[in-house]
Amino acid sequence: VNGETREDAEQALERARPALLGLELERWRASAKTAGALLEASPSALCAFETALLDALTRKLGISLFAFFGGAEPELVTDITLTTGDAEQARDQAASAAARGFSTLKVKVGGAPLAHDLERLRRAAEAAPNAQFLLDANASLSSLEAIRMLRALGELRDRVVLFEQPTA
Q1: Do residues 42 and 12 make contact, with C-beta atoms less than 8 angstroms apart?
Q2: What tens digit of pLDDT does each residue of 99-151 get?
Q3: 132 phi/psi in degrees, rounded to 5
Q4: d(C-alpha 153, C-alpha 159), whole Å
């Protein structure tokens, strides 16, 4: 999404390493805040650090991350993202996701002609006839383009439950 590569994240962690070493595990919130300031420009590096920090803490405590965060429900219902690509790829990914029990499919749109996105959505809808859709444009559309897309969906619009970040 932001163009950050694994190498970028690794370099950011290496630069921040001297300041991160020695942070107190038991004061994980303060440690995460320090890391947040140091790694602000690298969200992937920050996520990696915070994940490792909490993993180390819960291992030390002898509990799972699930239990640490309350463990209210043993099951999570979520969506799955259909990556950018052509209509055939969208169809194949939607069919695979539906076969695995996903009922909500997040589809990346924008950055390509409207006809391309519409064909991808139609093929995904055919392959997963009971699925709902989240459309995610990553702020790539103008307000007029977003409205055009919604209007062009026709009956498929009824299956769209969220249009995430259509514009900047």
Answers
A1: yes
A2: 999 999 999 999 899 999 999 999 999 999 999 999 999 899 999 999 999 99
A3: -100, 160
A4: 10
d(CA 160, CA 153): 9
Q: For residue 105, what are the contacts with CB-CB under 8 A and spacing of at least 6?
A: 79, 80, 81, 82, 94, 97, 124, 128, 131, 132, 133, 134
Q: Are strands 160-164 and 104-108 parallel, antiparallel or unpaired?
A: unpaired
d(CA 64, CA 44): 23
Per-residue pLDDT at 1? 54
pLDDT digits (tens, 9 = 90+) for 35-44: 999 999 999 9
* Rounded Cα gap, residues 168 and 155, in angstroms: 27
Enter the DSSP assignment of 15: H
Element (H, E) at 133: strand 132-136
Evaluate if pTM is beyond 0.85.
no
